[in-house]
Specification:
The complex is a heterodimer of chains A (250) and B (537). Chain A has 250 residues and is of the alpha/beta class. Chain A has helices spanning 41-48, 71-76, 93-97, 99-103, 109-121, 126-129, 139-152, 169-186, 197-203, 221-226, 231-249, and strands at 2-9, 18-25, 30-34, 56-61, 64-65, 78-81, 157-161, 189-194, 206-211, 214-219. The mean pLDDT of chain A is 88. The longest helix of chain B is centred in the N-terminal third of the chain and has 35 residues, at 13-47. The chains are: A alpha/beta (250), B alpha/beta (537). Chains A and B meet through helix 2 and helix 4 of A and helix 6 and helix 7 of B.
């Protein structure tokens, strides 16, 4: 699905936002980019949909370099879920969900119905919520709309930039469960950015651990725990495990 | 008081409506142009931040130019009338719209705009579907400010003959009639408030639409704004076209400067033309100064107006010598014919010169007869005059030099106020107009110009030669006014307007009636005989 080959990026003020990185993502795979702020995880996400251009290396989507895509078309064919406000405050929920189909010019009964169905899919009663405005929804509900909007693109690839980062623990748990359900049903290719270790473990087929622009390790959660390749990865997992052990001991 | 106001409104109802429509056209037209231009400039600036500084400096600077100065700057470029007024109003309306468009768009959260990019909006889609709708409240606030400014500034358009409610204000100020000032000012204030509320209401309607579950709300909302603008522009254009087309007759445009006597003379001329010709008469009264009217004549924007030989001699022809009345008239007539293709008709029959006035008491105390008699006592006196007298080349400083005067102080004030100031003893000497009715009413003494500082100022009609050639009846009809007004008659008419607050139109009408000038020549052999007697003198 996605081939990332020796891609690097640096900003003028910050060197090595992303050191050369290679990664292949299979169709239907859930890859979580895990790291703290400044680790390069959001940079990588933006490189994939062409919001940023790599200094070196190449990214291919379905065998075609993203340089060869029209950037607007490329982005419309990728679902994107944002961290904070990604919803348009002046549009109601349904209009928000249908944003991308309408940008493409699809504005008919069918896409409308599809939008309503998607709202039900993300567990928002379409009868009740379709005509509400974003500021009338809770944070969790807003992010459900965000997910529905990404799905409404009909894209096979979804990019999620810390979508649940600002939510409380219980809501986050609900949304993670919902996402897993949807993933089972639609089996999209998912690139998910988070700084939350537990979220990563729960959602990922594979985890990419990033630290200060350097890839630390790429692998399944069990690999990372059992065979950490760098001290960073070891510490990353050992700390919470230790605290859990201590808690159990008490 | 209430009844007076009511009478006035009823009395001037049709004129009020006409001025109100003119005012609306000026305000609406300029606001619509400014909205289109301002939105465009604002959006372009939001895309090219480098230009924001320089462009905003220019637009801000435009705003700081006083309205009258702006109109004066535009005069040589665009002449008088609606076009320069529209341009001036548009320039003033630009700032709030551009600034608010820019602020509205720049104030949007960068995350939201990045989201647009990530979702695959094109630049245009982002502008129309996200940026403009979200900036709409700020932009509308700017438009409301612009509209209210326009209503205010449009009152000044009267100075350059664009009409509107300002006509009442300018005329009211000129003839010292507060009722007339209010007749212009109050509707203008109401108009400003109404426009503000109307736009606020419109903004609310636009916002309400979003609560309906509908498709493509953002585009539709933006389109509806465009639609409202387009309809507004269309209505304005239709109204203007209707005004033009309503009367297919050829038009003769009568102009005047902005003081009482000019209104009366212009009214007399206009009413004569209405009575005795088939032409449509358009009044372009209260133009700012001799230069404004003169240029309007040269630009063929007006056809005929009353002027004074001395003013033409000094201000237009720039002559410094002082000659006798007959020679001055002949020279002015010849120079105008050759240089400007303008024609002077024989004078009305009186002179309106600068009157150097003192109270009767002062005159008696110091035995004052001529201006020279002031020389010795001037260090104990205060002189008052209008700004115009101070500014003219042949005004205060040349005057003071000629008579070796050294007043202890001077006071600049509205011409309408000098008589009262003199009577009340706040000044000792005043420069007024020799035909003002208040000279007699306040028992003021006019000192003779013994050193012949002032040229003769015979009042007469000036017209474009072309209009006389195209419509010989215009010259024929207006010629009947030559020699028809003596100095007592004009003083009395001025007094009736200034003191009794009658309208210039009705005073002029009474005069024409009394003189039998409204009768057709063939109807009244006696009147015709009288005129021949005058002509042959």
């Amino acid at each position: 699905m996605i081939k990332i080959h020796q891609v690097s990026k640096s900003y003028r003020k910050k060197f090595d936002a992303l050191a050369p990185l290679s990664l292949n993502i299979e169709a239907g795979e859930v890859v979580v980019l895990l790291g703290s702020s400044g680790s390069g995880k959001s940079t990588l996400l933006k490189l994939i949909n062409g919001l940023l251009e790599p200094d070196e290396g190449e990214i291919q989507i379905q065998g075609r370099s993203i340089q060869d895509y029209d950037p607007v078309e490329l982005r419309r064919s990728i679902g994107y879920v944002f961290q904070g406000i990604g919803l348009f405050p002046h549009l109601n929920v349904l209009d928000n969900v249908l944003t991308v189909p309408r940008l493409r010019g699809d504005d008919d009964e069918e896409s409308q119905q599809q939008g309503l169905d998607l709202l039900d899919r993300v567990q928002l009663d379409s009868d009740r919520y379709a005509t509400r405005f974003p500021d009338e929804l809770s944070g969790g509900q807003q992010q459900r709309v965000g997910v529905a909007r990404a799905l409404a693109t009909g894209a096979d690839l979804l990019l999620m930039d810390e979508p649940f980062g600002a939510l409380d623990a219980i809501t986050r748990d609900d949304l993670q469960a919902m996402l897993l359900e949807l993933q089972q049903e639609f089996s999209k290719t998912l690139v998910f950015v988070t700084h939350d270790l537990f979220e990563a473990v729960r959602l990922a087929d594979r985890i990419v651990v990033l630290h200060q622009g350097q890839v630390q390790q790429i692998g399944q959660a069990s690999d990372l725990i059992n065979n950490p390749e760098t001290s960073f990865v070891e510490k990353l997992f050992s700390k919470p495990l230790k605290s859990l052990e201590e808690l159990r001991g008490q | 008081m209430m009844m007076d106001a009511l009478d006035m409104i009823v009395d001037r109802g049709p004129e009020l409506l006409e001025k109100l429509i003119q005012h609306l056209l000026l305000t609406g037209g300029s606001t619509i142009i400014a909205v289109i231009a301002g939105l465009t400039i604002g959006v372009l600036l939001s895309r090219r931040p480098v230009f924001q500084g320089p462009v905003m400096v220019v637009i801000n600077a435009l705003q700081t130019i006083p309205s009258l100065a702006m109109l004066a700057f535009l005069l040589p470029l665009f002449g008088i009338g609606t076009l320069p007024a529209l341009i001036a109003l548009t320039l003033y309306a630009l700032l709030p719209i551009v600034r608010n468009t820019l602020t509205g768009i720049d104030g949007l959260s960068p995350e939201l705009l990045e989201a647009c990019e990530a979702l695959g909006f094109t630049e245009r889609q982002r502008l129309i579907q996200v940026e403009l709708p979200l900036a709409l409240p700020t932009i509308m606030a700017g438009i409301r400010t612009a509209a209210v400014i326009s209503v205010g500034v449009a009152t000044l358009a009267a100075f350059i003959g664009a009409g509107g409610l300002g006509d009442f204000i300018v005329r009211g100020l000129a003839v010292n009639n507060n009722g007339l000032v209010l007749l212009g000012a109050v509707p203008a204030a109401i108009l400003a408030l109404t426009l503000d509320r109307l736009l606020y209401f419109l903004e609310g309607r636009l916002k309400q639409k979003r609560s309906h579950p509908s498709t493509g709300v953002a585009q539709r909302r933006f389109r509806s704004i465009l639609a409202v603008l387009a309809v507004g522009a269309l209505i304005a254009a239709l109204l203007a076209a209707w005004q033009m087309a309503a009367d297919p007759r050829a038009t003769v445009r009568v102009a005047s400067k902005n003081f009482t006597e000019q209104y009366i003379l212009a009214e007399a001329m206009a009413q004569m033309l209405e009575r005795h010709t088939d032409l449509r008469v358009e009044r372009k009264l209260s133009l700012g100064s001799v230069h404004v009217v003169h240029n309007a004549l040269l630009n063929q924007e007006v056809d005929v107006y009353p002027e004074y030989t001395g003013t033409a001699w000094r201000a237009i022809l720039k002559k410094e010598e002082t000659l006798d009345a007959q020679t001055t008239f002949e020279r002015v007539q010849q120079a105008y014919r050759e240089r400007f293709e303008l024609e002077w008709l024989p004078p009305f029959g009186y002179e309106n010169t600068y009157a150097i006035l003192v109270t009767e008491a002062l005159a008696r105390e110091h035995n004052l007869r001529s201006i020279s008699d002031l020389t010795a006592i001037s260090p104990e006196l205060v002189m008052g005059f209008s700004a115009e007298f101070y500014e003219r080349v042949d005004g205060y400083s040349a005057f003071r030099e000629r008579y070796s005067l050294a007043f202890s102080d001077t006071a600049e004030m509205d011409l309408g106020l000098v008589y009262q100031a003199l009577q009340e003893g706040r000044i000792d000497v005043a420069a007024g107009n020799s035909t003002d009715g208040r000279i007699a009413a306040f028992d003021l003494v006019m000192l003779t110009d013994d050193r012949r500082f002032f040229p003769p100022y015979d009042a007469a009609i000036v017209a474009r030669t072309e209009i006389f050639e195209a419509f010989p009846e215009v010259a024929e009809v207006l010629r009947r006014l030559s020699g028809s007004i003596n100095v007592d008659a004009i003083r009395e008419m001025n007094r009736q307007v200034d003191q009794e607050q009658r309208s210039a139109a009705s005073v002029a009408l009474d005069f024409l009636r009394q003189e039998g000038l409204l009768q057709r020549p063939e109807d009244s052999a006696a009147a015709a005989g009288d005129r021949e007697a005058i002509d042959s003198e």
